[in-house]
Amino acid sequence: MRYVALLAFLLVPFLFAQEPAKPVEFASVLEFRFVAQDDDPSQPRLPVVGGKETVVLEPKVQLDVRAVAAAKTEIDDFGRPRIALTFTPTGAKTFADITRAGIKRRLAMIVNGEVLSAPVIQSEIREGKAVITGSFTKQEAQTVADRINEAVKASQK
Quick check: is 83 in a domain? Predict the structure, then answer.
């Protein structure tokens, strides 16, 4: 008769300690989450790539990589770089619902646990195309678009 050893680790709450808040978990490669409106000190602050700002994210994933078709950089009428997102048909409908309900809120784009950008929603976006403006350099905008496109490609494998 042969025996196999089984080692298991179980997380059990300590009886006299207060349970720590659950950290935000990142399940997919690309996610969109609202930035928390209340600064909860029990939640981790995540840096926004390329800046000096940190944000606290709400735990609920609003959209994931399946909602995005592509990203690209564009130059606006004033010569400033911006990021243009195109959503899938299903993603466009969900994005319209999110933007309608989230006007004046910040919606973070997260790739592999890194916050790429967290723009303020200015209006409902129904057409399935969004434009992210800001003080990007051309290279920063291209990097964000490239990271989004890499996540989209990885999800299609």
Answer: yes
Check: CB of residue 34 under 8 Å from CB of residue 62: yes
In a domain, 147, yes or no: yes
DSSP 3-state of 48: strand
Number of domains in the chain: 1
- Report the CATH number at residue 35: 3.30.1360.200
Q: What is the 3-state secondary structure (H, E, C) of 67-109?
A: HEEEEEEEECCCCCEEEEEEECHHHHHHHHHHHHHCCCCEEEE
pLDDT in tens, 20-69: 555 555 444 899 999 998 877 777 888 888 777 899 999 999 999 999 99
Q: Residue 91 half-sphere exposure, CB side, CA atoms within 13 Å?
A: 19
pTM > 0.90: yes or no: no
Q: Which of 88, 77, 78 is nearest to 152 (CA)?
A: 88
